[in-house]
Design brief:
The chain has 464 residues and is mainly α. It has one domain. The protein has 16 helices and 2 strands. The chain has a two-stranded antiparallel ribbon with strand order 1-2. The chain starts with a helix and ends in an 18-residue tail after the last helix.
Length: 464
Amino acid sequence: MSLNPATLLEPPARPRGPWSRLSGVQLFVLSFAGLIGLGMAGFLLLPGLYAGPRLGLVDALFTAASAVCVTGLIVVDTATYFTRWGQLWILLLIQAGGLGILTFTTLIIRMLGRRSALHVETAAGAGVAGKLGDPRALLRAVVTLAFGLEAAGALFLWVAWRHDFPPGTAVWHAVFQAISAFCNAGFSTFSDSLIGFRERPSVVLSATVLIVLGGLGFIVLEDVRERFLRRRTRRLSTHARLVLATSGVLIAGAAVVFLLFEGERTLRPLGTGDRVVNALFMAVTPRTAGFNTVDYDDLSNPAMALTMGLMLVGGGPGGTAGGVKVTTVALLVLLLVSRLRGYQHVSAWGRSARDDAVHAAAGLVVGAIALLAVAILALLLLEPGGLAGHREHFTRLVFEAHSAFGTVGLSMGTTSELTPAGRLVITGLMFVGRVGPLSLAAAMAFAGERRAGYRYAYDEVAVG
């Protein structure tokens, strides 16, 4: 990833060229777009990537965007359409996109944390972020952590598969799935994703742990390590507590709901233990990994609605997951609780959240809902049968849009049936869904430097 951390934090005082005049946000968005362009060019030009015909322009763009944005939506079967070299190209794009996301968001949260660490006023950025040293050391720490967790995950998966495949094949499957799971990408070298291993708890749980760790974010992982392994801090940061607590509630609650509604449907052929493991996996993968152990076209309506809700929420800031992030949801829930209790400020664990963080959370949710509404309307207008009133077709398109915006990768089998125009809409959703929330975080980081020294007079506006 050609992302220069120093450029994000300390732009040069004297511009020396067109690149030096770009802001950190602009540099990030352009570097991501450039990486997608490089991936598309590789699919169009590199030899030996395909077992069959070469991808066309739109499909090459779609696949590159899906890999770089660590989404996992596919228009062709990754396991059979690509050779080992083609799968390696996809894996490199996933790794570059995943590390770029980790690096950029960690740097942004570090900036937010350093700005407010003296007063410990923010629930979205304080903690170890201000203690991680200079950007180069931070970048090294992020890369080391990512590679270390991916290697450990690959080892566990290889142990589970070492007797199922030839040695080299087992290693390749383990490495690909480990990187894809940690980066929350959802690409798989198996045509049915992990459905064939849903009665293998070692495989399902290994993928579950990798997805969760990648989605929590580097800030949280480092904070936990400092607190419990090195015992250098007295308490977890408010940010880490919010991410861990909200993620735990969402995972546990969703697992119970999936077990309740799918235990006698999609999970019925499984034993009791495997039902629990797969219900847990179903609660984790929509936030936002894209692997599946069941056919999502067979889900009940309550389970489908819950899955789309989890896709919209996503994971933690500074991680590889997409969505509006669990801290956003946590802040809005805390805001509601505070208002119901008659309190003016949002607080948790004896710490108050900054008002601008709460406002940003509300704005992010409103923007996400508006963007999804526009994208769904566009899909209904562009796709055959979108205006015919078929509720099943409508549900599939809504599910696809949520999956793309949340960079999830789950599908009801609609992706390969989309028209070129529909695929371009989904490509745009994947890109905006990945860079949009991060750009907002960057804008928050610099908001203090652009505040006007005045405000307009107050006036009453009725609410509710």
